[in-house]
Design a protein that fits this description.
The structure holds 2 protein chains of 2 kinds.
Chain A: H1 2-22, H2 26-46, H3 50-75, H4 91-112, H5 114-118, H6 134-146, H7 148-169, H8 175-180
Helix pairs in contact in A: 1-2, 2-3
Chain B: H1 17-52, H2 68-77, H3 89-107, E1 123-126, E2 129-132, H4 142-162, H5 166-197, H6 202-207, H7 216-219, H8 223-235, H9 247-250, H10 260-285, E3 293-294, E4 297-298, H11 306-331, H12 337-368, H13 372-404
Antiparallel strand pairs in B: 1-2, 3-4
Helix pairs in contact in B: 1-10, 1-11, 2-10, 3-4, 3-10, 4-5, 5-8, 5-12, 8-10, 8-12, 10-11, 12-13
Classes of the chains: A mainly alpha, B mainly alpha.
């Protein structure tokens, strides 16, 4: 059963991931991304991390990809892209190098930590009929006590990104007058 | 491993045939009840709104026209299935299902009955197995509803885009912006309920609302309920927030290009969502299948057993909210788009966030043994100052925009 769930979810993730980079239509690529995110959510559930699965769906599938689609539709770039012309000629070889590098690092990590992978994780308190919220309680304890500093720093980072976007997208005072003149 | 499916005593232990059959039976019953409820809701809405507008409404098919929806459904079923030339065929066919399936999924986590009174936890025994009168009781409970409601956006969004036409596209862009904006307020008011009940599970939330004073609408101090109600109406794209299908501006909205069965699926999903959202409001704030009881006196419906009585109470409470939704539609004029966005971002989200902080401060104060009034007043002061800052920022930005000539 567990193997079956894993194989199905992994197939979803892989098909989606391949779809994201092979589909020419940006909307189809975004939908493939949703498939990948759902597969990851299923994997989370299979590992008893229910809360992470829910957050994965709410935040990534429900908000972020919706915003991607929103921008794609609003800007009207939803026609298939012409891939023959290259705006930056160096980007393909560079991407190849980076891709091989990342794959190498992941494989190296797996080979290096082979023994640790075989040991089943015991850290997560899974939900039981008596205590349905054990999982979420454990997660919130570690976020809001042990790692509260990292958590807050991350939220400040996001805030900076938002403020930065607003500042950059704002026109300087009086600039539009010169533009229109 | 079985906890993948649900926190339900039925599914712990070995997987046998009887529990499997009970689950299958539940699936079928929930599906049929959902479809019937939707059918009756369409009829109810048309009939009530007709009454409010001094018309008769549907009265030909069946007694009181109750079979009108069935007749409409059969008509739609036999109509020609159109796919526009410029549409994206695959996504165009997929979109109605993306709208229809989430509508049913949320219904699965609502406790539809069971005996919750007197400390009972709503378990019933069927064929020698203990279970709940709800299709699934996942440990993430109410988060599941939020996840599904965020998925429901895809159906509308892709329907508009894949039609290959400008008006549906505009309708769906409006819809997605509206639903994403109001989801935050919806989630924050749910968070208030989760904060006071201390559990995510829907059956747990119901179990803690045993008397009238324990109903979450009272415990959370009514504001989260109002915010949830408004945000839910926007989330459902129902009047007064039905800009998605503003006929005067957008021909028909995101579903302009749809016909026959695919249109029927959208229509069904819309009304199904209304029923589900009303049931969700009742579950979160009004005790779900709990009977109305003040102190130790409980209004008991005679003859019917306690477990079945829960279903009757749920039905009565849901009917109240369905009526309110119809009433909204008959009474309120449609919002303008900027009014909608202002209400969502500048009123509902700050209000729900502020109220959530107030409730959290109360709980922290309670466990630390601080004076309750001091905590409340201090929090209120902090919130007031924050609100003042927010207003100041808004005024400055409006002034700057006016000076730049962006806004008039």
């Amino acid at each position: 059963m567990e193997l079956f769930v894993f194989v199905c979810a992994a197939a979803m993730v892989l098909v989606g991931a391949v779809g994201v980079i092979t589909r020419n239509n940006p909307v189809h690529a975004a939908l493939s991304l949703v498939l990948t995110l759902f597969g990851i959510a299923v994997l989370f559930v299979a590992n008893n991390a229910h809360f992470l699965a829910a957050v994965q769906v709410i935040v990534y599938a429900g908000a972020i990809v919706v915003l991607f689609l929103f921008v794609i539709m609003l800007l009207g770039v939803d026609q298939a892209e012409d891939l023959s012309t290259e705006p930056l000629t160096a980007q393909r070889p560079l991407a190849l190098v980076v891709g091989i590098g990342v794959a190498g690092v992941i494989i190296a990590a797996i080979v290096k930590s082979q023994d640790a992978l075989l040991v089943r994780g015991t850290g997560i308190n899974s939900a039981t009929p008596e205590d349905a919220d054990a999982n979420i309680r454990q997660l919130s304890r570690s976020i809001f006590s042990d790692y509260v500093f990292a958590f807050e720093v991350t939220s400040v980072l996001l805030l900076i990104a938002v403020v930065g976007t607003v500042v950059m997208s704002r026109r300087q005072r009086g600039q539009h007058v010169e533009e229109s003149a | 491993m079985m906890q993948i499916l649900a926190i339900d005593p039925l599914l712990t232990g070995k997987l046998l045939w009887t529990p499997l059959l009970i689950v299958l039976l539940k699936v079928v019953v929930v599906f049929v009840v959902g479809l019937l409820a939707t059918m009756l809701m369409v009829w109810f809405e048309r009939k009530v709104i007709a009454g409010m507008q001094n018309r008769i409404g549907p009265n030909k098919a069946g007694p009181f026209g109750i079979l009108q929806t069935l007749a409409d459904g059969i008509k739609l079923f036999f109509k020609e299935d159109l796919i526009p030339e410029r549409s994206d065929r695959f996504v165009f066919k997929l979109a109605p299902y993306l709208a229809f399936v989430p509508a049913f999924l949320t219904f699965a986590i609502i406790p539809l009955g069971g005996d919750f009174r007197g400390g009972n936890d709503g378990l019933v025994t069927w064929f020698g197995h203990q279970t709940r009168v709800q299709l699934a009781d996942p440990p993430i409970g109410i988060l599941f509803a939020l996840a599904i409601s965020s998925i429901a956006i895809y159906g509308i969004m892709l329907a508009g885009w894949s039609s290959g036409s400008k008006y549906p596209l505009l309708g769906s862009v409006r819809a997605s912006a509206q639903m994403v904006s109001y989801e935050a307020a919806l989630g924050l008011s749910v968070a208030a309920v989760v904060l006071v009940t201390g559990t995510l599970s829907t059956s747990g939330i119901v179990a803690r609302q045993s008397t009238l004073a324990n109903w979450n609408v009272v415990v959370t101090g009514i504001i989260p309920f109002f915010i949830f109600m408004v945000a839910a109406t926007a989330e459902l794209n129902r009047p007064p927030f039905d800009l998605v299908e503003a006929e005067q501006e957008l021909v028909g909205g995101f579903n302009t290009e749809y016909a026959s069965l695919r249109f029927a699926l959208f229509y069904l999903a819309e009304f199904m969502n209304t029923v589900t959202m009303s049931a969700l409001i009742v579950t979160l704030f009004f005790g779900g299948p709990q009977p109305i009881s003040v102190g130790s006196t409980t209004i008991d419906i005679p003859i019917i057993g306690n477990a079945l009585e829960g279903t009757v109470w749920l039905l009565l409470k849901v009917l109240v909210f369905l009526y309110i939704y119809v009433w909204f539609r008959a009474t309120l004029p449609r919002f303008r788009y900027d009014q909608l966005m202002n209400l969502g971002w500048k009123v509902l989200i700050p209000a729900s966030l502020g109220w959530f902080i107030l409730l959290a401060a109360q709980r922290v104060g309670q466990s630390a043994g601080w004076d309750r009034y001091v905590v409340t007043i201090a929090t209120a002061l902090v919130l007031l100052v924050s609100y003042g800052l927010l207003m100041l920022a808004q005024r400055t930005s409006t002034n700057e925009r006016k000076r730049d000539g962006v806004m008039f």
